[in-house]
Amino acid sequence: MTYIIRAASVMDAAIIAPLLREADKNEITAMLGWDEKSAIEYSIRTSDEAFIATRPDGHPILIAGVGEGIPWMLGTPLVSKYGKSLVKEGRKKVREWTDRYGYLTNYVDVRNSTHVMWLSYMGFTIEFTPHFIGTDRNVPFYRFYRSN
């Protein structure tokens, strides 16, 4: 399946936010307590690099980026249709970012086994110790990391 990867702009937030998977929306709410559009705009603005993957017709698949060694990614249900090729592209990107920063780390909602599995495929180590760091103190997060 064909897709296009390009630099993300703040305008992309309004397009992809309503299309996010429920798990991504829940993670944003639990971690930040923000609406999806605001969280994506903030992530793009504070990233050193942000990109969006779309179908050729412009329909978004995922949006991702990294800032100061903190990687992030949010997806639409289309991620599963493009999974294998996105894993390949994602691994390349994660290697580039690891080379650039030396160390990557962030947190993932423990309720989202799909995200945890995806991070493992990307070469991250998952610490299976719950951290209650979000605005919703009832939702635990796992820290993930990767280094050179």
Short note summarizing the structure:
The chain has helices at residues 11-16, 22-31, 36-45, 83-101, 113-121, and strands at residues 4-7, 49-54, 60-67, 70-75, 103-109, 125-131, 141-147. It is α+β, with helices and mostly antiparallel strands and 148 residues long.
Strand content: 25-35%
**CATH 2nd-level architecture:** 3-Layer(aba) Sandwich
**CATH fold node name:** Aminopeptidase
The CA-CA distance between the termini, in Å, is: 32 Å
Total of DSSP H or I helical runs spanning 4+ residues: 5
Whole-angstrom Rg: 14 Å
Strand numbers in spatial order across the main sheet: 1-2-3-4
The gross shape turns out to be globular
Query: What class, by secondary structure content?
Result: alpha+beta
* Helix content bin: 25-40%
- What is the total tally of β strands? 7
Order of helices and strands: EHHHEEEHEHEE
Roughly what is the average pLDDT, rounded to an integer? 96
**Biggest sheet details:** 4 strands, antiparallel
